[in-house]
Amino acid sequence: MLSHAPLHHFVSCCSRNLLLLARPAHRRLFAASAPGSEPADLWIAKVVSTIFQRAPTHAAAAARLSPLRPVLSPSIVFTSLRRLPDSSSALGFFYLSRSDLAVVHLPQTFTFLISCLCRSGLHEDAVKLFDEMARDGHTVDDSFVEFLANSCFEAGKLDLATAFLAAVSKYGYRFQSYTFNKFLTSLVRRDRVGDAVLFLRQNLGSQFLAVDTCSFNIIIKGLCRIGDLDTALEFFNQMQRSCCVPDIVTYNILIDGLCKADQVDRGHEILQKIQLDSACVPNVVTYTSIISGYCKIGKMEEAYEVFDDMIGAGVKPSRVTFNVLINGYGKLGNMPLAISLYERMLICGCPPDVVTFTSLINGYCRSGQLDDAMKIWDEMNQKEVKPNGYTFAVVIHCLCRKNKVGDARNLLKVLSRRRDVVPQAFIYNPVIDGLCKSGNVDEANSVLLEMEERRCTPDKYTYTILIIGHCMKGRMFEAVEIFQKMVDSGCTPDRITVDFFVPCLLKSGFPHEINKIKSFISGRSSNFEIPDLQDIHLPIGKCLDISVAI
């Protein structure tokens, strides 16, 4: 770092030399040594950027650069600015040269600096600089304006982008629909559907923002996602008044939203309207949405009618279509039809996936047909389709209901070797429950240990099952430890846990633990109360046979 005195001398010398170089004769002589280049300008720019970087303050930089004002052309200032190490320094030099040195900046100086500011995340400064550029009378093409808007979108600065889009139209710039739609998408993805709706409404009919069918589709999809179907239908009707023709994507979004809101008949009416309109042809997504909606509310006859209608229209069902129907029939226990659809799926050349097999297994398990469920399980493995967590849960739950806890336990061991399946408490709970009911609480504790080793957090059902299991074996100290572990983990016991545990503690001579539970429950402001000890009556006929000695 140069001291102030030598630096001042350096600046004075530079000023004299630069003023000489500024004379036309000297400039021509200097340039003659390197045809096609401007070495004088480059040397001046290097000196200017060095002086600016070494000045301790803005005022000091202005004072030291002031003698060079006669030679500071806009192009030299632009070159100097490009030599600075970061966007903040460049912005500081820009304003210094603009205010203190009275430099009129080139359009490329503005655009270069705005681009740098965007890359550095300084979008507020970039937008402010764009406004100054426009007020200076400089113009850029629409693509640069779209670049600045897109940069704000991608940085998540949607409020700034909204203000920029609203303000920039006064300068006569027109945004293409791509940019406008990207902005709407950014708002919807960040759960700001209301802001997107307001912005579209404000700009309908605007000559500066191009609104198209995709714009409406984005808004309608966002409204359907939050369940505001009335407003979605309002925009659907507005489309035609705005000279935007709904396409099949529009209809699919609207039908899917209606079906997910259990307004399937209304969605079906729209499908029938599309079928009569030759301008728009329903596709597999359209039909599958209606089929899924009917399956969801248990109207399988209507779902199958739409399926037949789909085949008749020459639309090939997808794997999702078959899966939806198979799952629907499986939940109702109609396995013959579910298997028939599965076979038809294979004939159509549509390979089954884990959802297909899980739906079949779940259907058989619901019907109590464990052997058939296990045949599907074996077929699934033969086709090298890996079961997911829900598949394991369905089979394990059914095995435990059939008192085949040992087989369920073996499946858990298979699951423990699958690192691609995230373990969930609902998969383990049936096995723990089955082991506790059979009196094998030690093995149940081992399953709990496995859960924790796999970082699977036990839920209130896991703890309640273990507490009841230990109480039934008379292992009250362990039950108390499990309850304490439950509380420490942040899992609040429910009425079932408390209503069972408190009488067991009372009968086993643990009044102090009852008071601790009572204190805990009252501190959590739960919606149930533990009765006073004298209010708890345990008729002999209903007493649990719990031996404290064990």
From TrEMBL:
Query: Entry's Pfam families?
Result: PPR, PPR_2
Read off the InterPro entries from this record.
PPR_rpt
Arranged from A to Z, the UniProt key words for this protein are: Repeat
Q: Which domain of life is it from?
A: Eukaryota
Q: Which PROSITE patterns match?
A: PPR (PS51375)
| The keyword Repeat is annotated on this UniProt entry | yes
> Which regions are annotated as PPR repeats?
106-140, 212-246, 247-282, 283-317, 318-352, 353-387, 424-458, 459-493
| The family this protein is said to belong to | Belongs to the PPR family. P subfamily.
- NCBIfam families per the UniProt record, alphabetical: PPR
This one is known as Pentatricopeptide repeat-containing protein
**Source organism:** Zingiber officinale (Ginger)
